[in-house]
Amino acid sequence: MITRNRKTSFLFGGNAPYVEEQYETYLADPTTVSEDWRSYFDALQDVPAVDGSDTDDVAHAPVVSRFVELAKQTRTAGRSENDVLSFARKQVAVQALISAYRMVGTRNAHLDPLRWTAPVPVPELNSSYYDLSHADMNTQFSMSGAHFSEQVETLGDLMQALKETYCGTLGAEFMYLADPEQRNWWSMRLESSRSKATLDNGDKLHILERLTAAEGLEKYLHARYVGQKRFSLEGGESLIVLLDELVAYGATKGVKSSILGMAHRGRLNVLVNIVGKPPAALFDEFEGKTAHLLPAGDVKYHKGFTGLLPTATGPAEVTLAFNPSHLEVVNPVVQGIARARAEVLGLGASAVLPVEIHGDAAVSGQGIVMETMNLANTRGYGTGGTIHVVVNNQVGFTTSDPRDVRSSFYCTDIAKMIEAPVLHVNGDDPEAVIAATRLAIDFRATFNKSVVIELVCFRRHGHQEQDTPNITQPMMYRSIAGHPGVRTLYARKLVDQQILTAEDVEKYVHDYRERLDTAQSAEEKKPAAQKNEEENWPQLLDGNVSRIYYAPPLLDLVQKLALKITRIPDQYSLHPLVGRVVSARRDMAEGKRPLDWGMAEHMAFASLLSAGIDVRLSGQDSERGTFSHRHAVLHDQNRSSRAEGTYVPLHHVSDDQGRFSVTNSVLSEAAVLGFEYGYSVVRQNSLVLWEAQFGDFANGAQVVIDNFLSAGEAKWGQRSGVTMLLPHGQEGEGPEHASARLERYLQLCAQDNMRVVQPTTPAQIFHLLRMQAVLRDRVPLIVMTPKSLLRHPEAVSSLEDLAKGRFNEILAESPTEEAASRIDRVILCSGKVYYELLERRRQSGKDNIALIRVEQLYPFPAKQIGSELERYPNLKSVVWCQEESKNQGSWNFVMEQLLEIVKAPATLRYIGPEATASTAPGYKSMHLARQEKYLHAAIDE
Fold it and tell me: Which residue windows does the record flag with biased composition (Basic and acidic residues) (predicted)?
């Protein structure tokens, strides 16, 4: 029974055991306690934690402590039991109010510079929602779990503090973070500072200088180059303040290099005012003076640059990655560059900061954003956290209605997938931009996690400068027309604060324009250290690894490596199937049986690693191999934990070997291939490979292939030696597992931009991979890798083939002079169809047919093929035979080449499946019938 004696009320501290007993009873069955107790406990259960700790159950100790605290207040204030219960409920309400501001306070924040859309009311942010009245504003409540200063004593003080912290020009979303330490970090940092940065007058003047430069460049270009596209940053000039602070403040946290990726909006401004591209170089591009520098070149707002930005801790390296018009496709490339750069510096991932700058419509609309974010915390692709900057100009591309561009409340909601906190900031408040930037850098430095900053701004012009946006957005652009610009607004603020005068403001404008005029008149000389971007980019390259020239290793070295990579410690219990693979490889190493594809590939890697060259391989099943042929990582079947239970033979080649990395990738082709491309741009002394699970899965990365691998060097002078391994071959498994779309790569080939090969023996892949790793002027290598040939009894090689051979662009037969005179038909082919033709020729017993395998399709080995054809004096027919349909595969590419090689009286013809819409039949029987038809035509007829 609850006592009515004030001195021994139900909340008296000495009654703590009784309180806990009541709480236990409530948890077991709420109906067994009194209505008063039940109401209080119900209210307490509904309140989210405000101290940064979440549990599945409501702990007893905080409940009891709360009652004890209230009991003390009861004794001193002389309150009745009902008063105390009412006060307790209000205390719970106060905690709920704090939690609500932390969770959804940003929805009432002042984020829109245009203020052209009505705010959405949020009832949870009103005290009345919790039955807190105006009379309660002067009441003191417990602020347990909050981080405000001592000036916050009453509910009124608390409401003011919450609004300043969460509903100003900076709004934060972080309560969805699963880690209570991270949530507590954010609430503490935001509430202790009221979401404001500490800035002195020097800081403020620097902000004005950056805004002046951002606006000044746009106005100068607009006046000087009338009508030319530049994708202006006007309306979002605070981006320059943000990026400047990212680099400068990041340097104080150990960031040595920042890798930026962005689309075209504002790119020219970032190039000049952040990365350090000389204005004179930009003007030359506007005037067409640099068109001769590259085979193709690219528009100025796609180009990249690397420069040094001066900071208080010394110069910081900043790189803006090249990017085509495919907006967000640069994201994984940035991640790959950042990871590789961190490895080169050897200072850990935190020393390199990836910065991805998104558009508001693109960040929520393009799948590559999600695919790249999904790399963030993975072992093979993590970069220690990325700063994502969303430049939200509120109009996307052509629409201003969010219902047409996304289904989420914020365009940044995709970031919640990886639990990245989001900071929404008004672009008209550059000081809030600074605060958001510092918070983002500090959080990344503390937790190695990504952060998103949404810069809410506007776009003064249309999509490009010839556009007329008010045709479709009249209300928005009416508001924009009356907006003076953030530089003007901030200058007025500093004048009002008497930090500088109006004359000083004009001097900032005049000085920057004078600098541009000087550059325009060519009186500004380029610094000796600065070159054009095509020449400047390679400063990223790692020149520390010793190069080796391509030479076949000696037999004793091959045998030594083979034995090393097949020696497995006794404590590892392998799966029986894997055990047989390893045992077979040991026989290969001892010369007891010929080498298969998997062993030759391992030997290529081992020989490179022994020479100090790093090897990185990734793909969706690359550790084991999609067709269970690789087994680069061996799993102990009796392991006690996953971390302890793996053994990688290629980690044990030699004491001073290169680094071998093999990763089972996330289920994304575009993001992973983009990452590996970016990685290879930096690590040009490493062999970097990406493997498709099936060759046609690379279709999902076509944008990366078209814009980076194929054209990167022609457009930007950016070199990559990335290797693509694409399983390819018609084997009756259906259309999606038959073709790597060889024809697409051949269509992209020109100007020696890449190498496309289809090797058919283990020795060929061994020499090919070694050659790719050590050539000085490498290009992307596209390898059509086999499936059935992985275990074909005739697709084998010897240790001597590895030790003494080389990669051959063609593999031809060597008949005697007499035998050659009987040859009247030569069949040219590529890939596994050779072995099918070979078997059919044996069965037919014909000796008038010669077979030539074209192992390299581009650059096309015309000279070698021509020389081989000259060996047959009675040649009448040259056939190109392929297993792919006529409109696919190699025929349309090789036909033109062969017409120049085949000399009369010999004729050229095609034998293979007719043109089809699909890559292959979906039924095994149809595949076999089709195969029988072209084998019969090639050999029997």
Answer: 518-534
pLDDT on residue 30: 79
Give the containing element (helix H, strand E) for 392: strand 387-392
Query: Which residues lie closer than 8 Å to 163 by C-beta, 6 or more apart?
Result: 101, 105, 108
The answer to whether the CB of 688 falls within 8 A of the CB of 723 is yes
3-state secondary structure of 499: coil
Residue ranges of alpha helices (H) inside 694-761 are 702-704, 712-716, 742-748
* Residue 466 confidence (pLDDT): 72
SS3 sequence of 570-605: CCCCCCHHHHHHHHHHHHHHCCCCCECHHHHHHHHH
User: Domain limits of the chain?
Assistant: 6-145, 201-276+291-517, 555-804, 810-940
> E-assigned strands of 485-590?
none
- Distance in angstroms (rounded) separating the CA atoms of residues 601 and 622: 12
Full 3-state SS string of 743-780: HHHHHHCCCCCCEEECCCCHHHHHHHHHHHHHCCCCCC
CATH code of the domain occupying 810-940: 3.40.50.11610
Residue 873 to residue 466: CA distance in whole angstroms? 66
Domain 201-276+291-517 top-level CATH class: alpha beta
Contact indicator for 898, 910 with CB cutoff of 8 Å: no
pTM score above 0.85: yes
555-804: what CATH class? alpha beta
Burial class (CB in 10 A: 0-12, 13-18, 19+), 535: exposed
Give 64-133 as a DSSP string: HHHHHHHHHHHHHHT--HHHHHHHHHHHHHHHHHHHHHHHHGGGGS---SS--SPPPP-GGGSGGGGT--
Average pLDDT for consecutive 10-residue bins of the chain (941 residues)?
Answer: 36 50 73 69 59 47 55 52 78 92 95 85 92 92 83 90 96 96 96 96 97 95 86 93 97 96 93 94 85 80 90 93 93 97 92 96 93 95 97 81 84 96 98 98 97 95 78 85 95 97 96 90 47 39 43 83 94 92 95 96 96 95 94 88 79 94 95 97 94 94 96 94 97 92 97 97 96 90 96 96 92 94 97 97 95 97 96 96 97 96 95 96 94 95 82
| CA triple 924-925-928, angle to 5 deg | 85
- Cα separation, 8 vs 10, whole angstroms: 7
Residue 318: which H helix or E strand, with range?
strand 316-320
Q: What's phi and psi for 587, nearest 5 deg?
A: -65, -40
* Pure H helices in 670-827: 670-682, 702-704, 712-716, 742-748, 762-774, 799-804, 817-821
Distance CA 632, CA 603 (A): 11
Angle at 383 (CA atoms; ends 380, 386), nearest 5 degrees? 135
Please count the other Cβ atoms lying within 10 Å of the Cβ belonging to residue 376.
23
- Bridge partner residues of 907 (DSSP): 877
Strand 660-664 relative to strand 646-647, pairing: unpaired
Name the amino acid, one letter, at 107: R
Return all residues near 182 (Cβ < 8 A) that are at least 6 apart.
174, 421, 443, 447, 449
- Torsional sign, CA 711, 713, 717, 718: positive
172-195 in b/e form (b: 16+ CB < 10 A) is: bbbbebeeeebbbbbbebbbebbb
The encoded tokens of residue 699 equal 């279709």
Q: What single string gives the DSSP state of each residue in 456-487?
A: E---SS-SSTT--GGGT-HHHHHHHHT---HH
HEC readout, 159-226: HHHHHHHHCCCEEEECCCCCCHHHHHHHHHHHHHHCCCCCCCHHHHHHHHHHHHHHHHHHHHHHHHCC
Sheet (strand 877-881) strand order: 810-812, 849-854, 825-829, 877-881, 907-911
